[in-house]
Amino acid sequence: MKKKIGLLMLISVIGAVFVFGLILVLIPIVQKANMESNLSHALEGYFERKEDPSSAQKNPALRKAMERYNQKLAEGGQKRFTSPADYEIPTFHLADYGEPEECFGTISIPKIGIQLALYNGANDDTMMLGAGVFANTSLPIGGDSTNTVVAAHNRYNNVNIFLEIDTLQKGDPIYVENFWETLCYRVKETDVISPDDFQHFYIEPGENLLTLMTCYQFPNNDQRYVVVAEYCAEP
Fold first, then answer.
1. Distance between CA atoms of 117 and 38, rounded to whole angstroms?
2. In the predicted model, is pLDDT for residue 24 greater than 50?
3. Region 137-160: what's the mean pLDDT?
4. Which residue has the higher pLDDT, 3 or 87?
5. Which residues pair with 90 in a beta bridge?
6. Range list of H helices, the chain
7. Average of pLDDT values for 112-125?
8. Which residue from 16, 6, 14, 94 is spatially nearest to 55, judged by alpha carbons?
9. Which residues pair with 193 in a beta bridge?
10. Cα(111)–Cα(173) distance, rounded to whole angstroms?
11. Which of 39, 95, 227, 234 could form a disulfide with 184 if both were Cys (CB 3.0 to 4.6 A apart)?
12. Measuring CA to CA, which residue among 188, 196, 190 is closest to residue 165?
């Protein structure tokens, strides 16, 4: 009887170890699947809205409001970054103009094969769905004296997002699609900075810039990698 009890206990322990090991294997697989699903659904949601006849592309009031916002920033309204709240919490809201979601469009980087929905504000919620536009930087419609700063996780839940932007070189194209047009930017320079260095995130008079930012270098993430791109006339 004692041998039988001991054998059952051994089998139970082996079974528990097996189940625990199986859970450890499955967790990252499930996390990756959920993250990929989030990114994919966010993109699909944007394109469905854009195809809707009542979408923002039929909303000239929104376009004008975005232009006015960018102009105000360019004329001295861009404040200095002193805390995460300065770039996480938007001061412009698409909901004020009838939009059901705070999604501006998409960002595409052909060299690394990535396309992401582009959300308002760079915070944990938006970066679970795609990339986030820094609050207190230019809205993604281009124009003179603008600098749209876009942040995303480098790798999250086993999915590479902005992980490979450090492979971008001068001249590589990056595309930003909003409700009205697709803007082309080409890489101008790259840099590695500290988390409290915001030098690349401010508007430069007369320039039309797109700036990408992500944590660096995975998995330590104690620095930030920055890609600065300038507008080009490519259709």
1. 10
2. no
3. 95
4. 87
5. none
6. 2-51, 60-72, 85-88
7. 95
8. 94
9. 224
10. 8
11. 234
12. 190
Six-digit token pair at 75? 């004329």
130-133 and 114-120 beta bridge pairing? parallel
Amino acid letter for position 140: P
> Tokens 């938007």 correspond to what residue?
90
Nearest to 134 by CA among 123, 145, 142: 123
223-232 and 208-216 strand pairing:
antiparallel
Q: Between 122 and 234, name the one with better pLDDT.
A: 122
Q: What share of the chain is helix, strand, coil (3-state, %, to 5)?
A: 40, 25, 35
Query: Is the pLDDT confidence value at 78 over 50?
Result: yes
Residue bearing tokens 């995975």 = 218
Whole-number average pLDDT of the chain: 87
The residue among 233, 201, 197, 235 whose CA lies nearest residue 216 is 197
pLDDT in tens, 149-167: 999 999 988 889 999 999 9
SS3 assignment, position 4: helix
The span from the CA of 137 to the CA of 90, in Å, is: 10
Q: Which two tokens stand for residue 18?
A: 């097996």
CB 223 within 8 A of CB 160: no
Backbone angles phi, psi at 162, to 5 degrees: -95, 15
Q: Which two tokens stand for residue 77?
A: 């309204």
Q: CB-based contacts of 153: which residues, under 8 Å, 6+ apart? A: 127, 161, 162, 214, 215
Contact assessment for residue 178 and residue 196, using Cβ atoms and an 8 Å cutoff: no
Distances (CA, A) of 168 to 27, 126, 186, 225: 32, 24, 10, 11
Residue type, 44: E
